[in-house]
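Researcher: Please predict.
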Amino acid sequence: MEEESKVCWRKEVNKNIKRLYSLLFGADHALQKRDFTSTQVLTLRLVSFLDSQSHTDVNEAFIRPVRRDALSKINTARRSTFVPKFWYLKS
């Protein structure tokens, strides 16, 4: 029974890490491709995932830098969404 719980615990951690990386790298990729809507969606999902995993102060301390970076990406995408496509052509 104890070995079964270890396996389940490891599977859950592995699943969470894969989800974290998927959302994090997906948001980075979308931002690099200037797909600001996808960036916002992925980073909002990332922030909510991080918040759902933050159960203790220690968890929050580890998650805080990643969360701060995600919020920065949301703000960048939000600001870029409101910039006209051809703003650089205007004098």
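Model: The helical segments are 2-32, 36-53, 57-81.
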